[in-house]
Amino acid sequence: NVAGVRKGCVAVFGSADAASGTERLVVLAEIRPADATTQARLRDAVSRAVLAAIGEPPDDVMLVPPHAVLKTSSGKLRRSACRAAYEAGRLGGAAPTPRQQVLRLAGGALAARARGAAAAVGSALFGAYAALVFWLLAALAWPITIALRNTDRAWRVNHRIARVLLRLIATPLAVRGLEHLPAGACVLACNHASYLDGVILVAALPRPFAFVAKGELRGSFALRRFLQGLGVEFVERFDVVGGVADAARLAEAVSQGRSLIFFPEGTFAPQPGLLPLHLGAFAIAARARVPLLPVVLRGNRELLPDGTWWPRQARLEVELCEPVIANAVDDDEFAAALALRAATQRAIAQRL
Question: For 197-256, what is each residue's pLDDT tens digit?
Fold first, then answer.
């Protein structure tokens, strides 16, 4: 009720005083911008009002500008938060003048812009450095992979190179669930969100696998030679007859002990989430009757978003879920494939 103090904008709390071993009584009161003489008069008036109410004066009367007293969204005073701000020295002892408030707002805006510019520069420098390291290591991996003429050895070499890449660009990789990998052949079905998903999986998986990739990638000589050296299996997406032949070929390869990696979404999009899964990976696992493991990749979308070739800082995680076994009852491979797809969709979606 002291004239000059904003009604409903006063917080009173105790603040521990180590010197006295007790608490200091603090009054935090909002006022309009005022000169030093007016502030001194208001501080004295508040002290006398407290003395009249409880029989002793406050230890500290802090006058602050409007909206400095912290409140909840419903308008209730947040005394503990005010006390924390007071004890941390984040509250000034006097309300600023209008000119000071304008200067403070302008300074805050400039500081925010400076932080934004610094973050943009840092992101650009990281992207340039990461891209340079990637292409330097790619130039090393390409001839080695082709010269080895052995897909298992090529996988192990690229596994080491991929891990070196992640270390050099300070991108941590956490891998969980390797104990779920069976001793024999299996099929991995992974979510897809980045052009670097293959690199991440090569870095995460210590034993050789064969990626299943779209046939259009064979159009680039350099890329085709590298992927063939790594044991990639190409499939036709738009040729029905060729697609049937590819499925039979891949099922036979799995039956003979080869493990495959599929991205059953077929593509990826900028927005988060899981696209519908195509049936191919699950039909092959059902036909070969081998375990299928849903695999969840996290951080890949942040590392290299769709529509850009400029890497960003991220933390990567690869989680191999428990295997799902295809049980084709009465040789109904189609029903088994549908069941595998549904289980994989649930497992990945729950973990994204």
Answer: 999 999 999 999 999 998 888 888 999 999 999 999 998 876 666 677 888 899 899 989
Poorest-confidence range of 89-93, 268-272, 273-277? Answer: 89-93
Q: Say what the pTM is.
A: 0.68
The values of phi and psi at residue 77, to 5°, are -65, 140
Question: Distance between CA 297 and CA 197 in Å, rounded?
Answer: 8
**Tokens linked to 324:** 């799902």
Closest to 205 measured CA to CA, from 318, 120, 109: 318
Residue 191 CA to residue 197 CA, distance in Å, equals 9
Q: What is the residue type of 249?
A: R
Q: CA–CA separation, 56 vs 38, rounded Å?
A: 23
Amino acid, res. 31: I
* Rounded Cα distance, 163 and 157, in Å: 10
- Residue 139's H or E segment, with its range, is helix 98-148
